[in-house]
Specification:
Layout: E1 6-17, E2 20-30, E3 37-42, E4 65-70, H1 71-77, E5 87-92, E6 96-103, E7 106-113, H2 114-127, H3 139-147
Antiparallel strand pairs: 1-2, 1-7, 2-3, 3-4, 5-6, 6-7
Length: 148
């Protein structure tokens, strides 16, 4: 049986300089079979590297660039600066949330409407409430994916 997923398209601003940004569409995804993670997919044309081989992102090269990180990081980052390593999230003025993605090719700074992120997280919690993620983990499948 296929478990439903949450998918929501939101707009973000890719910060180029202090006075210039580019508006882009970002697809947020949450799958109950991977209950600890959220995914952010960006159009491939915004990649700094054709192969899109960032440490926290999946395969790219003409396809959307997908970054995967903890749902709890997104939740925490809307309230207080959070993150270590490749993904950092922090609140900003005017009900905005900043997401910083770091890869060997460079750093991307994106600004999101916090309300849109909260709506996405609310829908994800309808499928898997916070604190109940362990009930949805399939250790055998996760190990097979890791080794496969």
């Amino acid at each position: 049986m296929h478990t439903p997923a949450v998918e929501q398209t939101v707009h973000a601003s890719l910060i180029i300089t202090t006075h210039r940004s580019i508006r882009l569409r970002v697809t947020l995804r949450y799958r109950p079979e991977d209950p600890l993670a959220v995914r952010m997919a960006f159009p491939a044309e915004f990649s700094l590297d054709e192969s899109a081989a960032g440490p926290a992102c999946a395969e790219g090269g003409g396809q959307d660039i997908e970054w995967v990180f903890a749902r709890q990081l997104l939740t925490a980052g809307m309230e207080l600066p959070s993150g270590v390593g490749d993904v950092h999230i922090r609140p900003a003025l005017g009900r905005r949330t900043m997401v910083e993605l770091r890869a060997p090719e460079g750093t991307a700074l994106l600004q999101f409407d916090t309300t849109a992120l909260r709506r996405f997280l609310w829908h994800s919690r309808l499928l898997v409430p916070e604190g109940e993620e362990h009930l949805h983990l399939d250790a055998d499948r996760a190990l097979a994916e890791l080794l496969g």
